[in-house]
Design a protein that fits this description.
Strand content: 5-15%
Family: Belongs to the peptidase S8 family.
GO molecular function: serine-type endopeptidase activity
Number of helices: 25
Keywords: Hydrolase, Membrane, Protease, Serine protease, Transmembrane, Transmembrane helix
Radius of gyration: 33 Å
Distance between the termini: 119 Å
Protein name: Subtilase family protein
Pfam family, one: Peptidase_S8
Number of domains: 3
Shape: elongated
Number of strands: 15
Length: about 850
């Protein structure tokens, strides 16, 4: 007598599917998607707002966001996993619950600083691998049960099975159901299937067609990243590959054969149901996994491109039932390759709103994500048609090998030809403990002769200290192939290396600390430069008149002649009509450590605008008779401690193109005053002390360093990024046309309590030059800073004896400054920043009064 088969629900598995439970599952899925996406976007947005505002990132932000995701997503998933009778619904709940828990563990890793990307990738790989091992060994996944979770019965017995026993499903090696002999299959076919399964054991070392098709799909998803992205360093790339493999293994555990079997309506699965329902539920699971993948910002493209591959995985699973493939293997390959793209070929530090205004990294990351989404949709359709039809034929191994091989070659060709081949990782700046002793340098005679003598002595001491203390370490670093690049302005060496090298060097007695020296990755196409859309000024611009610089020209006859202003920025368009005649010329007036260009140029526009405000002709510059020299320390608005040092060294002792800064420097050719509309925040690798020896040395040489306060107001204490907080730097805030401090202008006190900024200048709606011969109005303390450098040029031109006398110059600027109106975030006492001096400094610079006082001696 045959036993009655157990009741079968609408899903084809034991247990009925209550319509209300189905509705609840749909609502839970929508809730999961919306909550996950909103939390990820909100967390990244908070990170970006604090970055733009110049505030420290909150290390606790992502652990809190991740915990919120676990609670908000995990509770509905837990109810779905426990309450419905339908196995398909319970399998859905379990998958989403496991995904939420994985998101909680992986997302919390973003507490690690983004600048330490290798450390984050190592932690991601270890955590994902650990989660995969734990999940695979849970009691509910016992290998002894070919079907069913937690001791549930397997597929219902078929009425034609001999003796009423369960249908003939053979357990696969990983506990998943093997190929089943269906009731309409002849006995001979069943024996053939079993023989094929047995023979497969001897051939297990060779990739099967389904796995190869999964690899091919993963390579197709890599194509947009190979074209539009770029790899980091060697260690970074290896760790990204390990992390992607571990995440693929975790996905293979979450989306194993039991999952697909239940979502597909039993054994054998119903192809249409499997692809549709399995793709939807699996896509939500992959969304949760992608949300925990990558540092803040890197997970956003994965959220778009990874979830749709669940439909491709469902089609692959339909084929595994015919080929006898372990269901988890294609999942591991496809998910791992899909996640390798955003993990390895996008730098999370560059996925920033700071670069989003042009076609920079955020634009290309978004383009790669959209292209990846399109590829995922095409794969889902193609694999669904090819593999998930009721009588579909699995391609032969030869065909699968050919497809995977062609796509592997395509990825390589795309990377080499239209892509950005090679490794483009970060470097390290090793700061030595001993710095040069610059005390007791004689003041010498007043004016330029004394300044030149001081600069020569400072250069001699700096180089001697670096040569004496760096020799042994440089030889050892060269022997290890770490490509050391020495510096003397700060006694430091830049090298290749990651966390291991950093830890090794940090433990050496001669090393003070090791900083990350950021490098931007190349772009598929240069970011366009704005040529400026404002008309040329008809006379002196409003900011020139507000400072009184036009009166200095007309009434005092002083334009800045005889003074040289040095600019370290994004570059300068040396052919701009307002700037061409002011270039000093010679073989030591231009330096580009990024791209090694040999003549002044500017790919960004920021540097052209600032130099124009300092020395530009035609009514835009404060000191149109002064000359300028330039250096490129910003590439696409990002810098690094080493490249900031490159330019500051060049300003102390310029050297000819291709020359050695240690032996070919010419201190007598140093510019007189430096304008610096940049800061080095922690995300670029700097710490508060990073550039302090450099500005100390420049001050000892009699070179005045003028620096922007920053645009992170109205927060108090926001003058924090070097070099603005240093006492030997003249720090400049910004005012508008009404002499009111702009809200964006950073405020003091500086770290240690020093009052900053020192003075103010116009910084809202400032008209100046742009690359290509045009003009534009820009806002920022970057715009205010070069105007103060121009005022110093006027003062020193009026009285050459003041050249190099930094203390007296600062005193004149402070004493002649005009009152300015402070601005506040609100009217609470805390917004006073300890006094208006930390908002307005000494006040608005008065060029006319300062030059008259300087001329009077």
């Amino acid at each position: 007598m045959r036993p009655e088969p157990p009741p079968t629900g609408s899903d084809g598995t034991a247990g009925s599917a209550n319509p209300w439970a189905v509705v609840a599952a749909v609502l839970a899925g929508g809730w999961t998607v919306a909550t996950t996406v909103l939390l990820q976007v909100a967390g990244w947005s908070v990170d970006q707002v604090r970055l733009v505002s110049g505030l420290d990132r909150w290390p606790w932000l992502w652990p809190v966001v991740s915990l919120a995701g676990v609670l908000l997503v995990g509770l509905p998933a837990l109810l779905l996993a426990l309450l419905p009778r339908s196995r398909a619904l319970r399998a859905t709940g379990r998958a989403w619950l496991a995904g939420a828990l994985a998101l909680g563990a992986l997302g919390a890793l973003r507490a690690l600083p983004p600048v330490h990307h290798e450390l984050y990738l190592a932690a991601l790989a270890a955590t994902a691998a650990g989660l995969a091992l734990v999940a695979a060994r849970l009691p509910a996944r016992r290998r002894a049960l070919p079907e069913g979770l937690g001791g549930e019965p397997g597929p219902a017995a078929t009425p034609d099975a001999p003796g009423g026993e369960p249908g003939p499903a053979t357990a696969a090696e990983d506990g998943e159901p093997g190929p089943a002999m269906t009731t309409d299959e002849p006995d001979g076919a069943g024996r053939t299937a079993r023989r094929a399964s047995a023979a497969g054991g001897a051939d297990r070392r060779r990739p099967d067609p389904i796995t190869l098709l999964a690899v091919a799909a993963g390579l197709a998803l890599l194509l947009p990243w190979a074209w539009l992205g770029a790899l980091g360093g060697l260690l970074e790339t290896v760790l990204a590959a390990l992390a992607a493999a571990a995440l693929g293994a975790l996905a293979g555990v979450l989306l194993d054969g039991r999952f697909w079997c239940r979502l597909g309506g039993g054994e054998p699965p119903r192809p249409a149901r499997l692809v549709f329902l399995g793709g939807l539920v699996g896509g939500v699971t992959l969304l949760l996994l992608a949300a925990g993948t990558g540092q803040s910002g890197a997970q956003l493209p994965a959220l778009l491109a990874v979830p749709p591959i669940a439909f491709t995985l469902a089609a692959l699973y339909a084929a595994t039932r015919r080929a006898g493939t372990r269901a988890a293997t294609p999942v591991r390959w496809l998910v791992g390759l899909a996640l390798f793209g955003p993990l390895a070929l996008a730098d999370p530090e560059e996925v920033s709103v700071l670069l989003a205004t042009t076609r920079d990294v955020p634009f290309w990351v978004a383009a790669a994500a959209v292209a990846g989404l399109a590829v995922a949709v095409l794969l889902a359709v193609g694999y669904g048609v090819l593999l998930a039809r009721p009588r579909a034929v699995t391609p032969s191994r030869r065909v699968a090998v050919l497809v995977a091989g062609v796509l592997l070659i395509a990825v390589g060709v795309v990377d080499v030809v239209p892509g950005q081949p090679g490794l483009h990782g970060e470097r390290l700046l090793v700061v030595l403990r001993e710095q040069a002793d610059l005390t007791g340098i004689p003041a010498g005679t007043p004016g330029r002769a004394g300044r030149d003598a001081r600069a020569a002595e400072v250069y001699r001491r700096l180089v001697a200290t670096a040569e004496r203390t760096q020799g042994d370490l440089r030889r050892e670093l060269s022997r290890l192939g770490l490509r050391p690049r020495p510096y003397y302005l700060v006694n430091a060496i830049e090298i290749d290396g990651g966390p291991v090298v950093r830890a090794w060097l940090s433990g050496r007695s001669e090393v003070s600390r090791v900083l990350v020296s950021q490098r931007v990755r190349p772009l598929p196409a240069p970011a366009p430069t704005s040529p400026g859309d404002a008309p040329a000024p008809a006379g002196p611009a409003w900011n020139i008149r507000l400072l009184g610089a036009d009166r200095v020209w007309s009434e005092l006859g002083v334009t800045g002649s005889g003074v040289v202003v040095g600019s370290s920025d994004s570059g300068v368009d040396g052919r701009h009509p307002a700037l061409a005649d002011g270039f000093r010329g010679g073989d030591d007036s231009w330096y580009d450590p990024w791209d090694r260009t040999r003549s002044p140029n500017d790919a960004g526009g920021h540097g052209t605008h600032t130099v124009g405000s300092a020395v530009g002709r035609d009514g835009i510059g404060v000191a149109p008779g002064a000359r300028w020299v330039g250096c490129v320390n910003l590439d696409r608005n990002l810098g690094s401690p080493a490249h900031y040092l490159d330019c500051l060294q060049f300003m102390l002792a310029p050297f000819p193109s291709g020359g050695d800064p240690f032996t070919d420097g010419r201190p007598a050719r140093a510019p007189d005053v430096l304008t610096n509309s940049w800061g080095c925040p922690p995300i670029e690798g700097c710490d508060p002390r990073a550039l302090r020896p450099a500005t100390d040395a420049l001050a000892a040489a009699g070179i005045l360093v003028v620096a922007a306060a920053g645009n992170t107001g109205p927060y108090c204490g926001s003058i924090a990024d070097p070099p603005a907080p240093y006492p030997d730097v003249l720090t400049v805030g910004a005012v508008d046309r009404n002499r009111r401090v702009t809200l964006f202008s950073s405020r003091g006190p500086a770290p240690g309590g020093a009052a900053k900024p020192d003075v103010l200048a116009p910084g809202a709606g400032v008209l100046s030059a742009m690359p290509g011969g045009g003009y534009a109005t820009l806002d920022g303390t970057s715009m205010a800073t070069p105007q103060v450098a121009g005022v110093v040029a006027l003062m020193w031109s009026a009285n050459p004896a003041l050249v190099g006398d930094l203390e007296r110059t600062r005193r004149i600027l402070r004493e002649t400054a005009q009152p300015a109106q402070p601005s506040y975030r609100s009217r609470t006492p805390q917004d006073a920043c300890g006094g208006d001096a930390n908002i307005t400094g000494a006040g608005l610079v008065d060029a006319y009064a300062a030059v008259r006082t300087a001329r009077a001696g």
